[in-house]
TrEMBL record:
Organism: Paraburkholderia youngii
Lineage top rank: taxon: Bacteria
SUPFAM superfamilies: MetI-like
This protein's UniProt keywords: Cell inner membrane, Cell membrane, Membrane, Transmembrane, Transmembrane helix, Transport
Gene3D superfamilies attached to this UniProt entry: MetI-like
Protein name: ABC transporter permease
Record flagged with keyword Cell membrane: yes
Top-level taxonomy: Bacteria, Pseudomonadati, Pseudomonadota, Betaproteobacteria, Burkholderiales
Length: 264
């Protein structure tokens, strides 16, 4: 029996070590990019011979980069708000509804998660060309919303399925109206799902590049598109600074979500 426990302990440490190596392999390129963003060489030489904040200064003083950053933030906030709102309504229908075709409708909503992004981007590009939405904020929002909405439906749907509906029934019996029940009982009870939906929806829009490339115009570009277009022209460390900014905000939001969940 002791031998079996020893073997299980050794196997556990082997799995931990293997997982650590895989994580290191995945995170190492990000560490390189962050280090290059602080390097004093303009040729992306690793390891850097010195350290500087010059590339971040250029990033935040270039109107083109600032416009792309603000465009990404604005679109991501709009997509987040719409995704959480529509995701709550859709998840409510899928989790509580008892109508024919509910499973089919659920699979339809989750299709963007399994459909190749480039296929979706080409289809939206062809459609938006006819509608005149290419190169517009509306086009960006619709394209990003299609990608972000499944995350909201999954996060909010899981919260609704674990929520005790007898609390809503009790509130109705006590005289609260349907809207008041949703506002005072349902939404506070599933707030972790709402927070998760908001974070993933924001990040789905913030980091999206494939659909954004098809939606972009010379006067309207998101930060990932700006990085992509600049990368095709010149290998400047400003690209590493902008990429580090993208990764940094993603990490901050993920950590914030984890802290909220831990506090809860």
């Amino acid at each position: 029996m002791l031998l079996d426990f020893d073997r299980l302990g050794a196997l556990r440490w082997m799995l931990v070590a293997l997982g650590g190596l895989v994580a290191l392999f995945l995170l190492l390129p990000i560490f390189f990019i962050v280090a290059l963003s602080f390097g004093d060489s303009q040729w992306l030489i690793f390891p850097p011979r010195g350290w500087t904040l010059e590339w971040y200064r250029q990033l935040f003083t270039d109107s083109g980069w600032i416009d792309s950053l603000l465009t990404s933030a604005k679109i991501a906030v709009i997509v987040m708000a719409l995704s959480v709102t529509l995701g709550f309504l859709a998840a409510q229908a899928l989790a509580r509804g008892k109508f024919r075709g509910r499973k089919t409708l659920q699979a339809f909503f989750l299709t963007p998660m399994v459909l190749p992004v480039v296929v979706l981007a080409v289809a939206l590009y062809a459609l938006f060309l006819k509608l005149g939405l290419n190169g517009t904020v509306v086009g960006f929002v619709i394209g990003h919303l299609i990608i972000a909405l499944p995350f909201s439906i999954i996060a909010i749907g899981n919260s609704l399925e674990s929520f005790d509906t007898s609390l809503e029934d009790a509130a109705l019996i006590c005289g609260a109206g349907p809207l008041e029940v949703k506002w005072r009982v349902t939404l506070p009870a599933i707030r972790l799902g709402l927070i998760a939906a908001a974070i993933f929806s924001f990040l789905a829009s913030w980091d999206e590049v494939v659909v954004s490339i098809f939606m972009a115009s010379p006067t309207l570009q998101t930060l990932p598109v700006r990085i992509w277009s600049t990368l095709r022209q010149d290998l400047t460390p400003v690209i590493a600074a902008a990429s580090s900014l993208l990764v940094g905000l993603t990490v901050v939001l993920m950590v914030a979500g984890a802290l909220v969940r831990r506090a809860r």
